[in-house]
Design a protein that fits this description.
This protein is mainly α. It has helices at residues 3-22, 27-36, 41-51, 53-62, 71-94, 97-116, 118-130, 140-156, 161-172, 177-202, 207-227, 233-253.
Length: 254
């Protein structure tokens, strides 16, 4: 990488760490930047997954106040994250690169739709709660299954997995969105860590990209956890959709 490319990857990692802590979808910032440096899509995804682990951890630590009283829930849903994250990482390593290159544009497009529709999803969640829809403290088998499948997606390609987590938990748990966001950060950290452990031994990755994203995401996770809630969700959403659209166009044309 050139010095300018390294600076861009570091900045992207910082932005992704902050966005992941607050909303999710930070991969839509780092992934196109890694592609622009010349990394193949699978190598970029693996390097990105490894690099975002520190950011996931710092974001989870930053939300520790909101995690109080949710230990049992985190442990239960963490099992779903481990199972799904492991399955997704295995799929990434076993499917041919050509399959990944065909699937990723679809996944990026899906992630962009989820980001763009996040206000509508949140509104539906609020209406469900206001109407007295059924909720359980642990969400029941439906939430466990849903989060397992979402974690399969997260282990394979992590863009917007946080939004999926929050929307699922918001529909099935009677909690504030801030406390759900705290659980989301823990689940993302679990998925990223499980996938990273597998990638370290069985995948090709770029150490320069990993180190730069790791440094940036660790800082970004702290920034996002401490100050991200003061930023306009509309601004973050616009940034994510804009960068993700560029990535989608790049993937389709190449």
């Amino acid at each position: 990488m050139t010095p300018w490319e390294m600076a861009a990857v570091l900045a992207a990692g910082t932005g992704a760490g902050a966005v992941n802590a607050v909303v999710g979808s930070g991969t839509l910032i780092t992934f196109p930047v890694l592609l622009a440096t010349g990394l193949p899509p699978v190598t970029a995804t693996v390097s990105n997954g490894l690099g975002l682990v520190p950011g996931s951890i710092t974001a989870a630590l930053g939300y520790r106040e909101e995690l109080r009283g949710q230990g049992r829930r985190v442990l239960l849903l963490g099992v779903a994250a481990v199972l799904g994250g492991l399955a997704g990482a295995v799929l990434l390593l076993t499917l041919p690169a050509s399959a990944f290159e065909r699937i990723v544009p679809v996944l990026v497009g899906l992630a962009l739709v989820l980001v763009a529709c996040q206000p509508w999803i949140a509104q539906r969640v609020r209406r469900r709660r206001a109407s007295g829809g059924p909720v359980r403290r642990d969400g029941g088998p439906l939430l466990f299954t849903g989060l397992t499948l979402a974690s399969v997606y997260g282990g394979y390609f992590s863009a917007a997995q946080g939004i999926i987590y929050v929307s699922l938990m918001g529909m099935l748990l009677d909690e504030t969105l801030q406390r759900l966001n705290a659980v989301k950060n823990v689940l993302a950290a679990v998925v990223n860590t499980v996938a990273a452990l597998l990638f370290l031994f069985f995948a090709d990755f770029d150490w320069t990209a990993v180190v730069l994203i790791a440094a940036g995401s660790a800082l970004g996770g702290l920034i996002g956890a401490r100050t991200g809630r003061r930023l306009s969700p509309a601004v973050l959403r616009t940034l994510i959709v804009s960068v993700g659209t560029v990535a989608l166009v790049h993937l389709v044309l190449h």
